[in-house]
Amino acid sequence: MSATAAVPEKELEAATAKTHDGTNAIVTQIIAHSDDADDALKAFANYDHGVSIDQETNRKLLRKIDLNIMPLLCIVYMLQFVDKVSLSYGSVTGLRQDLHLVGDQYSWLASIFNFGYLFWEYPTNRLMQHLPLAKYTSFNIIMWGAVLALLATTKNFGGAATLRFFMGVFESAVTPGFAYFTSQWYTKREQCARVNYWFAFAGLSQIFGGVLAWGIAKGIRIHGSEIASWKVIFLTLGLLTAAVGVLFWFIMPDNQLNAKFLTSEERALAVERIRENNQGIGNRHFKMYQFKEALTDPMTWAFCFHSIVANIGAGGVTNFFSQLIAGFGYTPEQSLLYGSAGGAVEIVALVLSGYIGQRTKQRILSSLGGGVAAILGVALIAGLPLAKKVGRLLGYYLLQAGPTPFKTTFGAIYFVGYCIGNIIGPQVFRPKDAPRYQPAVITILVCWTLSLLDAIFIWWWYRKLNQKKAELRKAPGYKKVENQEWLDLTDLENPEFTYEI
Length: 501
Description:
Layout: H1 9-17, H2 25-32, H3 55-91, H4 95-98, H5 105-130, H6 133-150, H7 157-171, H8 174-185, H9 188-223, H10 229-251, H11 264-272, H12 288-295, H13 298-327, H14 332-360, H15 363-383, H16 389-399, H17 412-427, H18 438-473
């Protein structure tokens, strides 16, 4: 899978100039050694005169792909997020007391999940490159569901921490895997909306998980149970996730080439329709020069910084929102129910951001509105007195719009930043600061402001590079290399690649 990299203008001009006569050494070498090319070329093996797709056929094919791909991605992403926040549900339904947690042990239970995620992030990306994508993803879904169910058997901090670590290991495949699925099935113009669809199910997960946890807690309080509420929550969600993972194994294709819901002709057309992405559908070879190129890209580190500061806030809120709402003056059961309503805000914010981004072709700028709303929400929580619990709850709902600025890109280094931010996030919620958690709220306010400024910088940088590439393509003597879309070129090597901003 290609690394993507942005470079200073002089380097971009020099590298791209090599392709003008169609004899670029790297491209020639890739063509000569077809094993280095993208898997997409296999789809055209039986078509001597190429494949073309008209607008009506493309529309019907897109609808067919949506109906068969998107529901699974959305449901699994919803379960992934609700499983992650289930710890927050447990925190107000007896988990702290039953596991005898003291001091900052709950914060470490939240953070250790991301140590597992960080530990396995690089290996899981390599395994996704070498193994069938859908089958590997399915295995991880089943395993994290099983680990979540096993959390109901723990009796102390050590046992729970071990299982939380392995939950992070198995869940590390989901979001990057879903990014790969989206990029291999959809054009760049379509990807923004599709990422928003399955990302918005993180909002639905808050509604589903909050109502489920509230119903279990209330039912057990009224009717009694031999099993504690938090254990029933973990068992229910874990077994449900594992069952969906089994369905994923049998239904989800690894790519267009083995999609059972497509005919052989439709498979070739499904590959052809994403030619404009200049990204291919998958290459199983690790290329050191692409790795080095990504590491020297200033945007790699801009995205990494964005991921860290954005997820310090997200990681803290994810694991402490039930306690935060209870700290406003609501009962534990009310915190579960009222917290679920925040999911509706997230869904509206993500869908609206995606729609505006697709209409205006300004994905980054259109996402900033949610970030501004989230900053306003955090400011309300920090500034209003404890007695103003309705106003502070409104602030919590506004901060649910926060995910819109950081749903626009994915990559291994980005997810390293994601893990670091989520490790730090729970640690800023110190037990001595309860119930207001004022230092944590102020930290989130600063971090999300920095992430917003960083997103604006990223937009400016990529806009500048797009303009430079457009000038190079217009240069005298420029010639596009045939089938270069499928040659696993990085954006540095490929002058036809443009950044969707």
